[in-house]
Write a structure and sequence with these properties.
The chain is of the alpha/beta class. The chain folds into two domains: about 160 residues, Rossmann fold (3-Layer(aba) Sandwich), CATH 3.40.50.720; about 180 residues, Dihydrodipicolinate Reductase, domain 2, CATH 3.30.360. Helix content is about 30%, strand content about 20%. It contains ten helices and twelve strands. Bound molecules: NADP nicotinamide-adenine-dinucleotide phosphate (NAP).
Length: about 350
């Protein structure tokens, strides 16, 4: 199969570089262009400061294009680029992403600007993957991945909702520094402290949870930033319509995971949910659905960091379950999840090769 030509919107950001990394030897996508803000426009790709721990991928002849220019998407479309992965801040995504979509390039976005907008699917593949086709009639031109903290919350609760009927939940999060972007993370590390507040985060998670699960109920969400580089961990107490014990909950989670996996997509984890006794962010960060690699290479180990780890299951009452869950925020919660979405769209024949 000929690889589809793609571009990344964002040159030097954490998510932009995770995207570049994961696209550097992707079996279905070929990275043809990186379009950046004025700080990097015109610079050789090799000279853009590299922010990730792993080696920079080599694109020797690539120069950073101007993401703000109206001409860039038109030019790339005529040279065969079919998909753009956006790692833009929401304020910029509002104007820029529609320009790329209007040029005929299918935009997959990690920004929050168009989450929930009419005709722009907001999708977690295992939960509501079919929604990718729900574009309001026309072809798929724009789709969004969710907030990164939604993943460790929504995947286990989707499973438990299906088995026992979710009535209400409370969630508290501990979110890694990389969730705030590169400059934020560098400053917190240099200062040796972090402000736990994440303005607007709880509201976003609540709204996106309802949309993705098509659910209404009572929820209380409280989000905090913590002094850890990567990984978002959630602590959940949920109430259900039917009684069950933790062993039945464990079976329901495993059954859902078995039934909702995509083993034919390059970024899909072998199992979306991995059950453990106790969640440990130091050990489980790169869960791939089969195991917990300690030092994977995300450029080729596309499933590493793509599974959600669930543990610490307890039932204080027959219809109440407490659990913890962990997800890698810049992989499953951002770049990996976004490329997974595009793989699913291609698999569903929603993107014509050219
Ligand atoms: N970090 C996460 O875990 C995570 C998870 C889910 C979603 N997201 C979302 O992903 C997006 C990127 O987050 P990040 O963590 O990568 O942030 P970041 O490390 O701070 O990077 C910011 C990105 O925004 C671009 N940018 C900044 N100012 C711009 C401007 N004026 N015009 C055009 N582009 C501009 C930068 O492009 P240049 O490098 O070209 O300057 C860079 O790629 C945000 O919308 C964020 O909410 C992040």
């Amino acid at each position: 199969m000929q690889r589809l030509k793609v571009a990344v919107l964002g040159a030097g950001g954490l998510v932009a570089q995770r995207l570049q990394q994961r696209l550097s030897s992707h079996p279905w996508f070929s990275l043809e262009a990186v379009a950046g803000s004025p700080r990097f426009e015109g610079m050789a790709f090799a000279d853009v400061p590299w922010t990730l721990d792993e080696d920079r991928p080599a694109f020797p002849s690539m120069q950073v294009l101007d993401v703000l220019s109206h001409e860039t998407p038109k030019r790339l479309r005529s040279s065969g680029v079919r998909v753009a992965f956006s790692a833009l801040p929401s304020e910029q995504a509002i104007d820029i992403e529609p320009r790329w979509a209007e040029a005929g390039i299918v935009v997959f976005s990690n920004a929050s600007a168009y989450r929930g907008a009419t005709g722009i699917p907001l999708v977690v593949p295992e939960i509501n993957g079919k929604e990718l086709a729900n574009t309001g009639g026309g072809p798929l031109l724009h789709a969004c991945a969710t907030n990164c903290t939604l993943l460790p919350l929504a995947l286990p609760l989707a499973a438990l909702n299906e088995a026992f009927g979710l009535i209400a939940f409370t969630m508290r999060s501990e979110q890694g520094l990389s969730g705030g972007g590169h400059a934020y993370m560098q400053k917190a590390i240099a200062d040796g402290r972090v402000d736990p507040d994440i303005p607007g985060e709880a509201e976003k998670i609540g709204q996106e949870f309802d949309m993705v699960l098509d659910w209404t109920g009572s929820r209380v969400i409280d989000c905090a930033r913590v002094m850890r580089k990567d990984g978002h961990q959630v602590f959940v107490t949920a109430t259900f319509e039917r009684p069950f014990d933790p062993e039945e909950a464990r079976h329901a989670l495993q059954r859902w995971s078995d039934n909702n996996r995509f083993n034919n997509l390059p970024s899909s984890p072998h199992q979306p949910l991995m059950l453990v006794d106790c969640v440990d962010a130091g050990v489980h960060l790169f869960a791939d659905g089969k195991g917990y690699p300690g030092n994977p290479n995300p450029a080729v180990d596309l499933d590493a960091g793509m599974a959600i780890v669930v543990g610490n299951l307890e039932s204080p009452e027959p219809m109440v379950l407490q659990f913890q869950a962990l997800s890698h925020n810049t992989i499953r919660g951002a770049a990996g999840g976004l490329i997974f979405l595009a793989e699913l769209a291609l698999h569903m024949d929603l993107i014509e090769p050219n």
